[in-house]
Amino acid sequence: MNTFLGFGREHIERHYRKTGQCVYLHLKQHVIEKVPGASGGALPKRRNAKLFLDLERNSDLNSDDFEYEDEAKLVIFPDHYEISLPNIEELPALVTIACDALLSAKSPYRKQEPDSWEEELQASKHAKALVQLDNGVRIPPSGWKCSKCDLRENLWLNLTDGSVLCGKWFFDGSGGNGHAVEHYKETGYPLAVKLGTITPDGADVYSFDEEEPVLDPHIAKHLAHFGIDMLQMQVTENGLRDNDIKPRVSEWEVIQEAGVKLKPMYGPGYTGMKNLGNSCYLNAVMQAIFSIPEFQRAYVGNLPRIFDYSPLDPTQDFNTQMAKLGHGLLSGQYSKPPMKSELIEQVMKEEHKPQHNGISPQMFKAFISKGHPEFSSNRQQDAQEFFLHLINLVERNPVGSENPSDVFRFLVEERTQCCQSRKVRYTERVDYIMQLPVAMEAATNKDELIAYELKRREAEAARRPPPELVRAKIPFSACLQAFSEPNNVEDFWSSALQAKSAGVKTSRFASFPEYLVVQIKKFTFGLDWIPKKLDVSVDMPDFLDISHLRARGLQPGEEELPDIAPPIVIPDDPKDRTTNHLMESLDIDESSVMQLAEMGFPLEACRKAVYYTGNLGAEVAFNWIIAHMEEPDFAEPLVIPAFGEVASSGAAAFGAVGLDNQPPEEMVAIIISMGFQRNLAIRALKATNNNLERALEWIFSHPEPEEESEPALDMMDMENNANANILAETGSEGPRIKDGSGKYELFGFISHMGTSTMSGHYVCHLKKEGRWVIYNDLRVCASERPPKDLGYLYFYHRIPS
């Protein structure tokens, strides 16, 4: 009653011993089955009118067969003295007021939800007398496309003339080109229904004139005018409608293993997670993370210690929330099979009431996404981006002597070669994910793809349903080959020629991680800059050997590029210098921006990352993104400073320079993120007048740092551990890595269904106890046909040599 924190029975004693707080409000609910025919009809669902704390109800029990009885008591520790509520006679007025306020308080999680979810729609004033043109238009059951552009999502059917047009474009990149609104302005036809939301129970209808969603009591008649039978439109599992997912229906069915009777799994490690509204990306990643022994030991194995030493407000402690979530998934307490008596009763009643199993990660999501512009929203997100965000938080919140995220960490050797002089430079950086490009040109079924595309266009022109989807089949070996091939280096300056030249870069593994995460880069941008997904099948191997990608370092006969920094051109006129600096700042490498955007990061954040890292390439910009993901303006548009603001904005972008002439902290963090020590980064920036590009050249030409005293090294360790960048490296021994063999075995994969990272659904498959298991939010079942060729993120563990 002092901190207003809630605790379960097994944790209340620990909190009392730790804080000395002795007054607690105990809330309990009793679920009681109703007596058939009692009171001559339906009984009220609750015996007490007051709803305690706006608690969430079990939807499986929220029926006419059950009712709730609420009980509230004050409990005084350590004697467990109980006072039933309400009790105005015995309790002070202040305590009574506090209890009433608590019992009537709204859940903080529901406060986060938009109020519009609770609003009731009103019937449109246009519905009763809506005029429908007899123009012979008939709408097919699927295969829709905007009549004014090529969009196939967010389509609206005008109920007056049968036009199919796209909706508005939203700030998050979803939506359309606004052709439905333009059509209303031209014609005045007021009502439209969203295609894909039509079910036997109704549809989403919008009134352009009333500027709000509305009800259409005559929707069945209005749809029948255009040949649409509402009774034939069905809803699939997870609230996803059939017409929303066509022509990708096979992808949804295959990945979720629809049409196959799957056996539910129960017990430790087989606990589902509730979808909080587009939170399946979080559910899938956390299931994979807590299937790894190192994370199990770090958080669940250390649970008593983490709870004992947690701060007074454990809701704001990362390790406490991780331990709590891990315990929920691995303890088995929330994944229990139904009792035999319950099964017999269900069979006798010819009904099936699913067991109320699984956990709701509301508190975990609220904490881990706090301050992040994307993850704090209810929009769908990229699982790969969330994985990196999680690793960032694990790095910043050490638990125990070992960091569990080290199992993913590996070193990448980058070999850059000047094409004219043939001289080379070798550098290393830290990474956590192996990103494989999709080699579309290597598809083995090109003839089938061409035939499918012709049939699809014919069906589109004739407004017929599209043909059965043909998916490109890509050999995994082709993706691996594309990863290992040299890439052109944009704007390469050759120190051998002391001029700009053509350069190529190849990447190899300087170390192999204990657990290898492989991302198939399916998400890209079309020519219209609209995010899209490559719907491909990649024959991912169960056993993977990438030993041939081991870095070899400088080879005999190779000559290194000279350690010469690019020349600096300083204008004579200070005003010209300001102008020159601003003009350079406006030059943003769009190719690097696109590379980052394909990883799933917001476009504006990618532009800022490339801008603030001086166009040094996608790798450096990626490190900047990781270091700034939690800033409130992370995804805000890039604001180029005006002429008079160049100096101040530069300080803001790279951290103000201190009076002691210390380099900007932001520049230091960027260099640290590439795997270099903090003291080396500071020396390099000081030696080059805080020029980031020249500082990197200086580091390459001074590979041997001077010896530092032990206190200085300890101080650097403390500073670097506090740094927000997940790639920060400390100590004289270099990056924390667990090198070993390059041979791996597949144990899990995360699949995505949908057309882009901003929509769709994620499912996780994990191999446990020798068999594959599908984790589809709350549903955990034995997998019959794991779709290993349709995954997005793959998890491999090293085979002991």
Automatic annotation (TrEMBL):
Catalytic reaction annotation: Thiol-dependent hydrolysis of ester, thioester, amide, peptide and isopeptide bonds formed by the C-terminal Gly of ubiquitin (a 76-residue protein attached to proteins as an intracellular targeting signal)
Family matches, as CDD domains: Peptidase_C19B, UBA1_UBP13, UBA2_UBP5
Pfam families: UBA, UCH, zf-UBP, zf-UBP_var
Gene3D superfamilies: Cysteine proteinases, DNA helicase RuvA subunit, C-terminal domain, Zinc/RING finger domain, C3HC4 (zinc finger)
Domain annotation USP: ranges: 271-799
Top-level taxonomic group: Eukaryota
Listed GO biological process terms: autophagy; protein deubiquitination; proteolysis
UniProt-listed InterPro entries: Papain-like_cys_pep_sf (IPR038765), Peptidase_C19_UCH (IPR001394), Ub_carboxyl-term_hydrolase (IPR050185), UBA (IPR015940), UBA-like_sf (IPR009060), Ubiquitinyl_hydrolase (IPR016652), UBP13_Znf-UBP_var (IPR041432), USP (IPR028889)
Positions of the UBP-type domain: 122-230
Record key words, sorted: Autophagy, Cytoplasm, Hydrolase, Isopeptide bond, Metal-binding, Phosphoprotein, Protease, Repeat, Thiol protease, Ubl conjugation, Ubl conjugation pathway, Zinc, Zinc-finger
Every UBA domain range: 587-628, 662-702
Keyword Nucleus: no
EC number: 3.4.19.12
Residues at the active site: C280, H761
Gene Ontology MF, one: cysteine-type deubiquitinase activity
Locations listed in the record: Cytoplasm
Assigned GO CC terms: cytoplasm
Binding site for Zn(2+): C146, C149, C166, H179
SMART domains linked to this entry: UBA (SM00165), ZnF_UBP (SM00290)
Similarity remark: Belongs to the peptidase C19 family.
Assembly behavior: Interacts with UFD1. Interacts (via UBA domains) with SIAH2 (when ubiquitinated). Interacts with BAG6; the interaction is direct and may mediate UBL4A deubiquitination. Interacts (via UBA 2 domain) with AMFR; the interaction is direct. Interacts with UBL4A; may be indirect via BAG6. Interacts with NEDD4.
Protein name, as recorded: Ubiquitin carboxyl-terminal hydrolase
Organism, scientific name: Otus sunia
